[in-house]
Amino acid sequence: MTETRFIPGPDTARAFRDALGCFATGVTVVTTATATGPMAITASSFTSVSLDPALVLWCAAKHSLRHDSFATARRYAIHVIGEKQQPLAAHFARTGNDFSAIDWVPDAEGVPILSGCLARFDCLAEACHPGGDHSILVGRVLHAMHRPGQGLIYKRGQFGGFFGLD
Questions:
Q1: What is the C-alpha to C-alpha distance for residues 43 and 25, in angstroms, rounded to an integer?
Q2: Which domains does the chain show, CATH number per domain?
Q3: Whole-prediction pTM value?
Q4: Which of helix, strand or coil describes residue 153?
Q5: How many Å apart are CA 103 and CA 56, to the nearest integer?
Q6: Tell me: the pLDDT tens digits for 6-33?
Q7: Cβ distance 77 to 121 under 8 Å?
Q8: Of 2, 63, 95, 120, whose CA is between 20 and 30 Å from 111?
Q9: Which is nearest to 156 in space by CA: 21, 20, 13, 45?
Q10: What is the rounded CA–CA span in Å between residue 53 and residue 130?
């Protein structure tokens, strides 16, 4: 088996990305309400920060056309996506404002709530920190829900079920 060793930098960005891709993550779709309508983005960079107070974080790429909508959002919802919701995750990885074929309802604040997710965290924006080419968005969880099921996984640039990726 061949091992690739490198020092992360501009010339080794692909190798660094490949190394990061060895770590499987869950998949989320984050939604918010904007002045022009609902907005969503697929994100795999999601984790808990604190139980008391209840805080979570996720990261948004600064080069994304949707970045500013989320970096300035007062409220957003983070949806943990189930393994059978891969089309939903792929859809919002490509586009952020096309909700025409999506099963959703607005919450009391107008934030889109997606149907069928495994878990959801309704957040009030707590902080937005610089993180290189991303922003680190910390949300205070106001409400949460979960249901049984297997999560969608992202590894080595591919979506898969819990046991479906090598």
A1: 10
A2: 26-156 (2.30.110.10)
A3: 0.92
A4: strand
A5: 25
A6: 999 999 999 998 898 888 899 999 999 9
A7: yes
A8: 63
A9: 21
A10: 22
Adjacency order of strands within the sheet including 46-50? 37-43, 28-34, 75-80, 119-131, 134-146, 55-61, 46-50
> Can you read off the two tokens belonging to residue 107?
């919450």
- Which pLDDT tens digit goes with each residue over 118-140? 999 999 999 999 999 999 999 99
* Dist CA 7 CA 84 (whole Å): 38
> What are the tokens at 125?
């924006």
Q: How far is CA 54 from CA 45, 49, 121, 138, in A?
A: 17, 8, 10, 10
Amino acid code (one letter) for 135: S
Q: How far apart are CA 100 and CA 85, in angstroms?
A: 16
Q: Which pLDDT band, with edges at 50, 70 and 90, does 163 fall under?
A: low
Buried b (16+ CB within 10 A) or exposed e, 9-41: eeeeeeeeeeeeeeeebbbbbbbbbbeeebbbb
Report helix, strand or coil for 67: helix
